[in-house]
């Protein structure tokens, strides 16, 4: 208990001689340094708030405006047209000299002029960023209007923006017209319905548009004028936080490590480097040193999702959950063999080195103490039903030692699991190894992750790693950003010594990680067992297939003058039709971060054009006819994707109209039917955002396999894909064993075949489509 005594700054004992006061200089020093670190962060935040608040101007521009106004006054000209004199008349201080009053009045006028200029520049930039015609222009051919627009955006964007500098200049998400949304919806479901069903749905849509729709639209427009984004808060609350089923598998998602290489086989060393890299990223995030994400190096995207990346946790409630965010925590929560630990990563105000974190992690691995009663599978509460977890939290964790330990986990910077399993591309059946690896990251043993944390990092016994993220606070690209940074810093900047350990020296006087204490009652243990049973049944039902398609990649696809994303979406449509003999409602996630607080929108990839192409190809139509239909389908898909990114999507608008109808207590048969349609094919692309961190030419073995998610529908598939370099496509396919019509491995085979068939159809020289090994980078698998 030495670390417990060190945490007490002073002790006193009452004796007959008086009070014996004993000061702990080490504890007082820790308190002092912690306070200094806290104040430094506050000063940095204030400075960044000022810089972002006056953006696109700079604080120094205020001085320039003041000097310019004073200079013009001394030339006996009045740039204020009498306003400075008016200000001087109303100054409350009469003891000043006339000249001093004139200077003060000029400074006040200059400040007001400066603020007006900032407001004008920000308004101009906001109007410029509302222009989206550039996205619909043919790739490589930019109109004169767009060229002028790009130049103006760069002029008004200022220099060296911080991460959140653009937030005040981003436009609000527009509310589409009712008639446009209804028209697009009816067009999207036409290939999925027979004539009688389509006629019935058309009648429902027409009635909705002419009656209730206009009333709901009025309320939605009113909200759009008041709120920063008319979708995001309702989307977070009703889609994520109000869901009462398990978030494990159903909501959380995962990301994988490098596919073909493990930087070190030592578990503690890998954790040491990566945990250090995570805190380096948090430091850059707090200082807003991360660059804003710019499309075409000019158009900024919203960064608000980064705010809750660290020090956040989802808190269960009986009706709805909440996401709580705390200020910078100086520790992480660690799980190993049924025990929870608190590991401080700051000592005397400094971040521990990777070698010191490795030393502390090894202490946890070497710890032989047994879990306390009921502790080992406590994490299953976060994997089961939300209502059960909320009631258990209120009953068993609202006071005493349980509350203190739970607070420690929830307030941690993030959660770490030290797993005893080994995962990688091992053995002869590498595909099966990847499948097990994906399932482990998605749900683990159902009790060895804390699924409520913003993200949990898993380090396996052989040095492999992975990440599991909670979905309500942010979407996958935000988590992928920190994951890419961590992998790159771990391997290319920090590195390891010849023995595989982290570099640097160790301060052996570091206090040991603190094991958390629990008092779990038999009634609480029963609830843990029930939650585990629910979670285990869900995990056992998940069928996963992960594979790296290396026969060709986006390099050859682009040579066919086709969008790689459109190509893969058409391959998925073809594969699903061959697998099930029909078409289905298809979800592809698109981002709306061109708008303030934007998150996602749905691209309905199954269209009239895509179904016509698939039917023609499967019906044996001539190749030239199929090629023409394919290009029409691909162009339609790209148009829908651009519409979704620029606020012209279908589903978020209909979703918000549905929410308004529920608030008003009115029923809409049209909206009820739309919102109940199952997404049997849910897809998402994970792009590599920080390409500059990786060398795909010289270090092609350092390739992440991307990430994935569970199936959205009980009888459907979840497909995540990632284009790596010019020659690789990684795919993650999920479905459920309980559905006799779905099989992840069979669907994966159909996707492979569809990719080859499409390339063969589009290749100008048929022989080229057979040269699948050309240009494929050589890699070495883990041994």
TrEMBL record:
Task: State the family named in the UniProt similarity comment for this chain.
Answer: Belongs to the carnitine/choline acetyltransferase family.
Q: How does it sit in the membrane?
A: Multi-pass membrane protein
Say if the entry is tagged with keyword Membrane. Answer: yes
Task: Identify the GO cellular component terms for this protein.
Answer: mitochondrial outer membrane
Originating species: Nothobranchius korthausae
Could you confirm whether the keyword Transferase appears in this record? yes
- Which reaction equation describes what this protein catalyses? (R)-carnitine + hexadecanoyl-CoA = O-hexadecanoyl-(R)-carnitine + CoA
Q: Where, by residue number, is the active site? A: 471
Copy the pathway line from the protein's UniProt record. Lipid metabolism; fatty acid beta-oxidation
Question: Which keywords does UniProt give here?
Answer: Acyltransferase, Fatty acid metabolism, Lipid metabolism, Membrane, Mitochondrion, Transferase, Transmembrane, Transmembrane helix, Transport
| Family matches, as Pfam families | Carn_acyltransf, CPT_N
Region feature Disordered, mapped onto this chain: 763-783
Positions with biased composition (Basic and acidic residues): 768-783
User: What InterPro entries does the record point to?
Assistant: Carn_acyl_trans, CAT-like_dom_sf, Cho/carn_acyl_trans, Cho/carn_acyl_trans_2, CPT_N
Record's subcellular location: Mitochondrion outer membrane
Annotated Carnitine O-palmitoyltransferase N-terminal domain residues: 1-47
Q: Which GO terms describe its biological process?
A: carnitine metabolic process; fatty acid beta-oxidation; long-chain fatty acid transport
Main subcellular localisation: mitochondrion
Indicate what this protein is called per its UniProt record: carnitine O-palmitoyltransferase
